[in-house]
Amino acid sequence: MAWPQKTPLEILDSGRRDNAKRAAATYVKGNPKALEVINGLFDRLGEASLEIRDLEHAKGLDHKKVREVILGLSDVKPDVPTWIIDPPKAQHSPGVPTLMASDWHWGEVVDPEQINGVNKFNLQIAHRRAKALISRTVDLLKNHMVNPTYPGIVFALGGDMVSGDIHDELRESNELATIPTVLDLLEVLCACVHSLADAFGHVHIPCVTGNHGRNTLKIRAKGRVHTSYDWLLYCLLEREFKADKRVSFQVSSGPDCSYSIFGHRYCLTHGDQFRGGDGMVGALGPILRGDHKKRSRNGQIGLEYDTMLLGHWHQYCHLGRVIVNGSLIGYNEYANQGNFGFEMPKQALFMTHPKHGITFAMPVVLEDSPVKGRKWIDPH
């Protein structure tokens, strides 16, 4: 699948964000095939709204009916692919790589003038970084490892994939309204998955939702995924690959997703359940306290794990028993306002060995550092 060629989206001003269909049609102007797909999707959304209303009145609506009736996806618990259970036949295989993808904040705009010029972000840059993430991952695993033979790759989607409009400042400054943003990101993720499947043969995709891409004022405990654009994005992505036997999904119905690789047990979560921190320990305090509580809870219900994977904090940290992902968006006005430590946009990449558990850790850095060798930053 060819990587999508995107145009700058300044053609969509804030005055048209209340009309998602018109925005989407304008975005694909000059591409009749894409326009046909967009119009078909909105027609299907209209039909789906009627189906939702009927289901609500008749039997009640839950995520199972959304997946089965509207999206045509089975809600049966997915079979775990054998290639992440059975050790590879190659005697010297390094194991199964895991690439984490979280906190992309697709659609958010970062103004370098407001953060001393250390980062800039918009949809055009987001496309470039997503493409760099896949190409650099393939390069690291194929050209910088001894005996680079892998049975497949795990592509863990950890939430906050879209910026959303949960705050007034995001509604005012996002480059696109949320629905066109989801459609734009869906195309990019399709290209990512296709590229990973072509490079590694198989892709397993565990998914959890974040706190940003929601359509409620506050994050919910009940029906968390049903109010999340992340979950909608994952379901649409799964539907795209329904006929591709190389790709498998675990779209969680709750905040956590449990799976194992060669017996090493992982708990994927977004990380927004953990609160607090201070100037001395930063994010480590709430993360480690949260890990302790989650391990205790999971041990009581038969869901013990060896390593927790999370995002949310935009600070890459590999501790073995806890792996915290970085972000694709990078440093933004919120981090600058809170005097948080500067960090380059990066995503976690590591290996699970059939005998030794987690071995190689090699974060994928998506930009060259703007501060290397400088004593100060000139935003101009």
Question: Which keywords apply here?
Answer:
single chain; 380 residues; alpha/beta; 6-stranded mixed β-sheet; 5-stranded mixed β-sheet; 13 strands; 33% helix
SSE topology sketch:
Layout: H1 20-27, H2 32-58, H3 63-70, E1 96-101, H4 123-143, E2 153-157, H5 168-173, H6 178-200, E3 203-207, H7 229-240, E4 247-251, E5 256-261, E6 264-269, H8 284-300, E7 307-310, E8 317-318, E9 322-324, H9 333-337, E10 346-347, E11 349-353, E12 357-361, E13 364-365
Parallel strand pairs: 1-2, 2-3, 3-4, 6-7, 7-9
Antiparallel strand pairs: 1-11, 5-6, 8-9, 10-13, 11-12
Helix pairs in contact: 2-3, 4-6, 6-7
Radius of gyration: 21 Å
Strand content: 5-15%
- What structural class do helix, strand and pairing data support? alpha/beta
Distance between the termini: 38 Å
| Mean pLDDT over the residues | 85
Largest sheet: 6 strands, mixed
Counted beta strands? 13
* Number of discrete helical segments: 9
Q: Give the topology string: H per helix, E per strand.
A: HHHEHEHHEHEEEHEEEHEEEE
Strand order of the largest sheet: 4-3-2-1-11-12
**What ranges have pLDDT less than 50 throughout 5 or more consecutive residues?**
6-18
Instruction: Indicate the percent of residues in helices.
Output: 25-40%
Shape descriptor reads globular
Question: What does this molecule look like?
Answer:
The protein is of the alpha/beta class. The protein contains nine helices and 13 strands. Strands 4-3-2-1-11-12 form a six-stranded mixed beta sheet. α6 (178-200) crosses α7. The longest helix has 27 residues, at 32-58. The chain is globular. The model is unreliable at 6-18 (pLDDT under 50).
